[in-house]
Design goal:
Number of strands: 10
Number of domains: 1
CATH topology: TIM Barrel
Helix content: 40-55%
Largest sheet: 8 strands, parallel, barrel
Strand content: 5-15%
CATH superfamily: Divalent-metal-dependent TIM barrel enzymes
Low-confidence stretches: none
Shape: globular
Order of helices and strands: EHEHEHEHEHEHHEEEHHEH
CATH architecture: Alpha-Beta Barrel
Mean pLDDT: 97
CATH class: Alpha Beta
């Protein structure tokens, strides 16, 4: 059996996320620990921290995963944004530690046209600072991106450069996003393309670094660089592509988080069932 879940809301109180995950049939789940579209966050209350930890333990959901907010960009050349981004990362790592969340997912960010090497250097420096300041044991998972203009993380080489350049390599891992990989040009929808992707992943990063999968179909074609998620099996990767992915030992053994659309076509529970069905066929 695969471990599959989805992103759930913390509206009302962070501990409410667990009941929402259970309602959707999750084995694992992902949250934002604070407002994903703002810089500020309210302080977590002692009671909700305790309730979150208790609810996770009693539910058997594993692992609990957090995702960084959207505004921080640790590759930016803009000093003010960069400083706020580093501070936000340190804060989110500390919140994860309080909640007992083992993984925090982060996008490597955008160099805004100033160059890949400089963007990677800034990202490494910023994550080093935040990890040292926050302490704890939460692992930061670098998510591969769709390869949009000026973004970092669209190639395994970008991710590898960050991993090898960090002063805290034991605190870094990888979140593999299927939609992003496909959009960036890794043709995981075909047998040959998936094999080539896995070979490149092992050679540049290593399977042991991959700790989580964002399980998303893609609205755009392979190499389109379009970061638009689709319901499992209804996009360009398709049912056959996901059946192949979900029968690959590496991905099958990892927790799978669906970040599929919220619309009338399918619910989160439908996508979770769809993943399980394809994994069992």
């Amino acid at each position: 059996m695969v471990r599959v879940g989805c992103h759930v809301s913390i509206a009302g109180s962070v501990d409410r996320a667990i009941e929402r995950a259970i309602e959707r049939g999750c084995d694992t789940f992902q949250i934002f620990s604070s407002n994903p579209r703002g810089w500020k966050s309210r302080e977590l209350k002692t009671a909700e921290i305790a309730a979150f930890r208790t609810n996770v333990q009693e539910s058997g959901l594993d692992p609990a995963v957090a995702h960084m907010p959207y505004l921080p960009n640790l590759a930016t050349p803009k000093p003010e944004v960069y400083q706020r981004s580093v501070e936000t990362l340190a804060r989110e790592l500390s919140r994860c530690q309080l909640l007992g969340i083992p993984y925090l997912v982060i996008h490597p960010g955008s160099h805004l046209g100033e160059g890949r090497d400089g963007g990677i250097a800034r990202f490494i420096s910023g994550t080093d600072r935040a990890l040292a300041e926050a302490g704890g044991t939460t692992m930061l998972l670098l998510e591969n991106t769709a390869g949009t203009a000026h973004s970092i993380g669209g190639t395994f080489g970008d991710i590898a450069a960050i991993l090898t350049g960090s002063n805290h390599p034991d605190r870094l891992g990888v979140c593999f996003d299927t939609c992003h990989a496909f959009a960036a040009g890794y043709d995981i929808a075909t047998d040959a393309g998936l094999a080539a992707t896995l070979e490149a992943l092992e050679a540049s990063i290593g399977y042991d670094r991959v700790r989580l999968v964002h399980c998303n179909d893609a609205k755009g074609a392979c190499g389109s660089r379009l970061d638009r998620h689709e319901h499992i099996g209804l996009g360009a990767i398709g049912e056959e592509g996901f059946r192949r992915i979900l029968h690959t030992p590496l991905f099958r053994a990892l927790p799978l988080i669906c970040e599929t659309p919220a619309d009338a076509h399918r619910s989160d529970a439908d996508n979770i069932r769809g993943v399980r069905d394809l994994a069992q066929e």
